[in-house]
Amino acid sequence: MDTEKQEAGVVVAERRGARLTLTINRPQQRNALTREVLAALRDGLARAKADGDVRAVVLTGAGEKAFCAGGDIGQMGAGETHSLAAHEARGELAALFRDLWELGKPTIARVQGHALAGGFGLAVACDFVVAGESATFGLPEIGVGIWPYMVTVPLLISMQPRQVLRLMLTGERVSAAEGRALGFVTEVAPADRLDAAVDALVEKLAKAAPHAVALGRTAFYSVVNHDVEAKLKMLQAMLSVNLALPEAQAAMAAFMAKRG
Q: What angle do CA 96, 53, 118 make, to 5 degrees?
């Protein structure tokens, strides 16, 4: 089996047979999303799309504490909130979602620990979510005066709208088992069987006819994501407005002070 692994960076790409694994490599920051992480993930997906031998892509996070804790609050702070560059950068998560949906190949989120905020959205933007028994999911943004705008589209693909709204309004966290019941988790596995569960799914997916998969998967997302461009642009604009509100500025400043 051919194996290839790039040098460590904010995202580590490892090719093993027909599978490409992209690992967010910021365990001390709970694999929070920065512009650099988003760019590296997008680059990895572009390479996977161009490589005919890659039949499935797995997204995961380094360490055991978090798949991804969402956006890095430090990059959302008061110093950048009002700039055009900051507004445009907020569209990178939406661009990553598009890359996943337009990949033409199956994607799997391997989730251990926390999948929160944008990390929750990243997980459910994948075709499958395979979670460890101790994994938790949530949208805690409301606690720092922000609404989870950008993840709305992938969440609405994954569960009933009222359940999405409940998680957005309350900020509560749900277990992997509840995620399975709500429909956004595909499979729950014990920690020592998580990789085996992912491997088994990759093996099954790799047997499917690649061109039929590419065409059918594209058709699926064209239907469920009807008019998605307009929705994502609106959500991006609303996020920029929300971040400029005094209550959001104060809550983020308090969060950063507490973390520091």
A: 20
Structure confidence at residue 85 as a pLDDT band (50, 70, 90): confident
β-pairing, 19-24 vs 56-61, is parallel
Name all domains of the chain by residue range, CATH numbers in brackets: 3-195+209-259 (3.90.226.10)
- The position carrying tokens 């650099």 is 36
Q: How many CA atoms lie within 13 A of 127 on its CB side?
A: 24
Q: What is the DSSP letter of 63?
A: S
Among candidate residues 119, 137, 118, 123, the one with its CA nearest the CA of residue 176: 137
DSSP three-state, residue 69: coil
> What confidence tens digit (pLDDT) does each residue in 135-183 have?
999 999 999 899 999 999 999 999 999 999 999 999 999 999 999 999 9
**Burial readout 18-51 (b: 16 or more C-beta within 10 A, e: otherwise):** bbbbbbbbbeebbbbbbeebbebbbebbebbbee
Whole-number Å distance between alpha carbons of 98 and 127 = 13
Nearest of 187, 197, 134, 138 to residue 166 by alpha carbon? 138
d(CA 176, CA 181): 9
- The predicted model scores a pTM of 0.92
Which H/E stretch holds residue 198? helix 194-206
- Nearest 5°: the CA angle 123, 179, 146 is 60
